[in-house]
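Q: Sequence in, structure out?
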Amino acid sequence: MNIFPAIDLFGSKAVRLYKGDYAQMTVYNDDPCAVAADFAAQGARFIHIVDLEGAKSGDTPNFDTVCKIKNTSGLFCEIGGGIRSMEVIDRYLSAGIDRVILGTAAVNDEVFLKEAVEKYGERIAVGADLKDGYVAVKLDRKK
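A: Exactly. Output:
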């Protein structure tokens, strides 16, 4: 079994949201690289990173922090949170991130999902968050 401890990022800090509420955010560490180093020291080989700002905006505001975590920890790193374009996938994977997690975009844009998997294979995964026993996604009402 592989265990993926997680670091959620907001403002380049390791945080946690209470029930997904951005207004109820706790900062656990100002240095997410130190958190990753602690995970590695405890025997972790993998880490799951979520860019919470990216999840809201669709941008990569914590890109440098994600790359720094990868480069300093040496852990297998996967990233999720707002990844909605091939350009963002290309950017993360070209920078050395091991796997990209697609969430809502995988549900809302089947063409995008297929393109990503065709290009990168197992370096793409689909993640599903649950709320009240159901998969939680933001539906694209424009389609």
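Helices lie at 32-41, 52-57, 63-73, 86-94, 104-108, 110-120.
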